[in-house]
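pasting for the record
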Amino acid sequence: MTFDFLTKPISAKELKKDLTPGLAEYEKSEPKMVAIDADYVPDAKITEAANAVVNNIGVLNYGNNVIRAHPSCMDMAVAVYHASKKAGSNPIMFLWPFEEALDALLKNATDESMKCATKAYVGTIKVANHWSVTYGRTGYELSAEAKKNYHYYGQMMKAAGETLNPKLENGELVSWNMIHQPLPNHAANVKMDFEKYETKILDAMCIKTEPVLQKETEQALASFAKQIDDHTLVGRDGLFQLEIGNTSLKFGVEGRQVFRDVGRAGVDVDMKTKKPKATTNNPFGEFFVAPVETSVNGSVGTQIPSETPMGTLSHTYFKFEDGYAIKLATSDNDIFKKVFSGINERAIAELGFGGQNPGLKFLEEIGLPTGDALIDEKVFPLHIAIGANDHMGGDRSAKIHHDFSIGESGSVGSRPLTVKKVAEEYC
């Protein structure tokens, strides 16, 4: 396997000449990270959603838009490819080896093979002006042989973050967008016919951003934020207490920026860089903040499943002390300890508040998690993340940033979230 062509800029025309278009380049027996120029056009519903997403982002007017495609959601990747090309960027696609391919990559991993794969991944990030991830993998668990080499994956992600985050900080990466493709297993999890589920999720990507921005801003300001200019919300001083179900946290956010995700990069101006914030998700619908890490104390409990490459955690309970998870109880503590292996991987990274996208209201009414973190964090009133938060105004660097939606299975929207100020100062 060779990956060298990914370490330098290359046009879509050159890719089409040099590589066989389509999925033939992806072989599960020998996983490859390859750039492709796909010619087929996905169905109208997915194409409409992809066009809306790219138009909402509104910044693809130059440079390379690298589309990192999961094998399970190629239709959305191809639709985004066409939409971004139409918008004026130079789209480049490559397949990222998840599911069976990730297992195959790690099962026989050596220092040399992983050095090569890491070089390819980091090289791809280096050429990107826009970074789009089509997301929607079907769920997986690594084999026993691959689990033994999971540390290689952590090293790869750390190297990727060390390249990606500075590009975000200095404005070289103009946009970073994660785009969801609905999959049949998500529909099954919420007991819906797939065609109906897919239509509703894709419709949620086509919602105009302004009403969502207004709703997110109002809720953030009512909770713990203040507005310092037209583009920037910042956490108020004092200690706040957050309660929902069996979660009770005290936290401070003084001086930390509160970001709003309405599917449009640049709706907020990053206080550190004074540049438009580049990151966004689709479907959108959350506001979030990196709390002052040492201020966070209390307990978090959830029965919402959380999928990791090592396996799915069906429930997770934390006790935080000065910003670190000092106690935990999960459905599989061994999985947790391997995925979140270092102290910074267990540090509080984010408090996120969902429920902002009206197109996802149907999931609140159903009351069941889809199993897809990108969707569930926008539906449940609260989610937390542990690990890295230096990409969102925090001080923690780690090899992982992982979200946990908070709640009891079947309780979406049924328990109100409360945030109240409990002290003027904190230590």
